[in-house]
Task: structure prediction
Amino acid sequence: MTTEQQHDTIDMMLNMGPQHPATHGVFRMVLTLDGERVLDVTPHIGYLHRGSEKLCESESYGQVVTLFDRMDYIANLNNELAFCRAAERLMSIEVPERAMYIRVILAELNRVASHALFIGTYAIDLGAMTPVMYGFRERERIQNLFEAVTGARMMHNFIRIGGVKEDVPDDFGPRVRQLIGQVREGIEEMDRLLTFNEVYLARTRGVGVIDAATAISVGLTGPSLRGSGVAYDVRKDDPYEIYPYLSYKVPIGENGDCWDRYYVRLQECYESLSMISQCLDQMEAGPTMVQMRRIARPPKGEVYVHSENPRGDIGVYLVSDGTDKPYRLKIRPPSFCNLVGLAPMTRGSYIADAVAILGSLDIVLGEVDR
Amino acid sequence: MDVVWASLWLFTLLNVVAVAALSLVWLERKLLGRMQGRVGPTRVGPFGLLQPIADGIKLLMKEDIAPGSSSRVLFFVAPLLVFVPSYMVWITIPFGRDLFVRNLDLGLFFFVALSVLGIVGLVLAGWSSNSKYAILGGFRSAAQLVSYEIPIIMTILVVAMLAGSLSFRDVVLAQDVVPYAAVQPLAFGVFLLAGLAEVGRTPFDIYHAESEVVGGPFVEYSGAHWAIFFLAEYINTFMVGALGALLFLGGWRWPVGDVPAAAGVALFLFKTYAIVAVIFWVRATYPRMRIDQLMSFGWKVLIPLSFAAFVATAFQMFYGWPIWTLTILSLVILVPPIYIQLRWQRKPAMALAKHYAEIAVAVHAQPRPVPVAAVTEADAAPGREDDA
Result:
């Protein structure tokens, strides 16, 4: 009789989400665990699917903007801009210059707000609970400005096909300048608190490494791709609006780990703030909307227009059959495509790393599921 | 008669400890709020002082749910197994020269023995919940608390050697002129760090990490049983503060010597709350470590350091060197780990950040074309045909 028995160990399946504090919404990942090690990860999406693309087909072009607001609910204005650019291309509309400046200022502010929120929520993923307050504080300031300009804090519906809804308030310039100063201070505060914090470095350096070739092949874009050292930025490589008239830097990383992705976003905040102040310098008075009919009917045809969202390259493929509603609207959502990188980054790491990696991709489930 | 008196004392102690724990809840929320640009609780009572009581009432009124698949008895026993040891320890803690329930001669040993017991409760809670997050949390707590028990014991031994006694009272009385924090800064530092890990506080709050195992062993608990865990956790935090004050900061005595009992208690509580405030401050500042980093930090850094403190103290006592040599010795031992930490983590990252600033791709502005007169004409573009 043997006293020792051979025990087979089996892997543990851990269902993380859809209700989990670290999945940023209703995202579910099934982790196959060997103790604390993650052997495999299977993402499950679709809990927030609202059929936005299909809904777009039953709305007139002007109304589609509101649906784009609700897709990536952290970067509403960037999304509005993405759709409006596609519709304008389809209708061959020349947008007045002042409108373009207003759009870029708002979009860059929204990018800063989104990144500030990322830094905060990412810190809370890693267990630091203070930066999230600072992140929300900065976002709050920016949202207050949005409220003054667009009348809404999140669902703006301000960027319209052919321009913007209305001109900005008279005190816009000084107010934005003051805001830039405040937000810069706030971001610097988070920077000091987090960037070179020993524990933060230990948790993010060398975690979730993805090399440039893999990152490109799985379709990463935006800061997640730039963290791997690929300087791809739609604003730089396919300039739109008034981006060509601005000087800025495209921050990139090299190692492709979580810290690089974080650091790229942090630097982008500073770059965006400097872009905004350049815009304010260059802005001139003028009309903010082209004259057009209430109900737009683009000619038959199709366009694919992409622009840079805080999360990456958002593409809008728009098909018109000549009626007042899109025949088909396909969105290339950056969050969804970035999520493909989750499995290759996560395999072989720890549970805590899986959370850190998911956080560093900065997904928004409203956009992943549409 | 003895039984009656003992029960009375224990009841009083329970109330004192519970009030202390509630005060910590309030203090934590207030301090964290201030550090995070908020104000913390303000609504219930003056300065929100009654907030913890409101929280407690809420918890007691909640339904106490046990998962259907849990093992009932163990599930409900586990909170008590965590709470009772953390409360029992207070029997021997002297709040003042003559203010304690029992001055045990083996007080320090009593503390060590009881504080290990709580781990059983945590593992049991994780196991009996029959939930994956809970079991992960239970495993984590076992690994973490067992490994961090060692440096705590070693630093307590250092203090016991210096004082020549295992009684809390004697330890405090021995710190007449210099507190042991000044004599043995190394042991004090190791004690604080290991204490953070012992009570599961940031950056070592790994076993109940909210963003990973969503509360760990406590995830399935609700209502009163969860409240007991919560209470035990804060009592333990207070315990670390009290131990730090007694063992290293001279309890109710240093630096004023013998004062009236009330003043002594106030001094002791002030020191305790100061240490607790530092713990909360750390919580507001640091992210959480990963389990493997925690283990390697414990076994490769804290335990060797605590042994070094122990050996240094032994040398000083054996050869009868003056006491300040021990201070210097322990500071010297502290230098290499701090240096290594800075060199391995922060410096390369800073160099990398500088490097990234250099390789960032610069995009230069193109000259802006002379602004054309505003486009007001609308006829040219398609899509603007009349709707009619």
